[in-house]
What we know:
The chain folds into two domains: 68-273, Endonuclease, Chain A; 288-422, Endonuclease Chain A (Endonuclease, Chain A). Helix content is 26%, strand content 28%. It has twelve helices and 19 strands. The protein has helices at 15-26, 53-58, 101-111, 129-140, 159-164, 222-225, 239-254, 288-293, 316-327, 341-349, 387-391, 409-422, and strands spanning 5-7, 10-12, 69-74, 77-84, 118-123, 144-150, 170-174, 195-202, 208-216, 230-236, 270-272, 276-281, 296-297, 303-311, 331-339, 354-356, 362-370, 373-381, 395-400. Helix 9 packs parallel to helix 10 (341-349). The chain starts with a strand and ends in a 6-residue tail after the last helix. The model is unreliable at 1-48 and 51-59 (pLDDT under 50).
Amino acid sequence: MARNVLVAGAVKSPLLVLLVLAVAAACGATPPDPVEIDGIDDPGSPIPDPIDDAAVTAATAVVESAGCVAHASLAGHSTWLFFTRPDRPCKGEAGSGIDTNAVDELTRLIGTVPAGARIDGHIFSITIDAVAKALLDAEARGVEVWLSTDGEVAASTDASKTQYLDKLTHKVYCTHSNNTACIATADGAISHTKLFVFSTATAPDGVVGKNVVWFGSANQTYASGAKLYNNTVTVYGDAALYTKLQAYLGDLFAQDRRADYYDSASGRGYLLADAADVYVSPETQTDLVVNRLNDITPDDQCRVRVMQASVRDSRMDVVDQLIAMKRGGCHMWVVSDTVEPDALAALKAASIPVHHMPIHDKAFLVYGNFGGTYEYRAYSGSHNLSGSSAHKFDEIFVKLAPETGTVHPVYDAYFTHFNDAYNTGPAL
């Protein structure tokens, strides 16, 4: 399926979506949100798999580099950040438009898990053989591997699925009569989360860690995992974060289906830990992103940078919150791949600059007043700014632990990543 792209502020959608919109308009009905499937390689123009076993074996030496790899401490836990920048690849041939920095790191990470340890993971989409092979190799050397995927993977004829994932002992492809989600019950829902946890794994600097968590925006495909801007986060040693996310992965694997997964009272989908807080969709009552942005008291010291694959008209609650913060004094910048017309018009009317680049991140970067304390914060995860991501899909929205004072390496790393895209992309 083709990925939606931005052209002069409008959206070019797949043919099926155009037909649905046309029929709805002819009947006088309000058109539905477009189907927001991102990151599936186009089967009509397959991208060759450039990673072979030798390349994977060689991809064990990782060093920090501005805009590509950063190492920090979040609430005392070692944290590694990997970014993709396809116009100037962190890993890959210059001019290729392919940056394997994020997928290489996930492959390397899986390869470090020792016999007797455990991997739990969830994949939205996959066509990269190296990631799938690394999972099967891990099981072969005695690692317990549990994997769930969006149901679209079930019909895949790609080698990553047929030669590797199908051979795993513990795997589930979430297929239902009305959707391909593992938890969400809404018609047309997908399972868009990108998440792995490892009981034991080795960090890029060679330090062996327990309770390791990996998440971010990158799918395991070249179309979105390597040909678009992305960010991934790996946290080592936060036992609470590991345990809670492993339980969520267990719900995905068990297909514990619910229309409304998020319940802060019970703690379901409301996962608080030292290094990060995680908020899980579907959530039908309010808006998980607005509720996090509400934590900030706007003033002229506030800085907000929005780096999103899509800002859709179905998510005007977030747009309105950003505009309210701007009016309260926050300085604000946006870079995105797709900004739909109403959202773009509202942002421009509020004098919020918007730039266009091939973004797949789902990130916010904030410096502001949180309950009387000025903090530097980054937000990541799989959650696009669409109504479906909030209320219909399996998604995670992640608020990383705050940094205060004069040293803030996580904020700085995301700041560089944001500027790499924003300063290159044209204004809308």
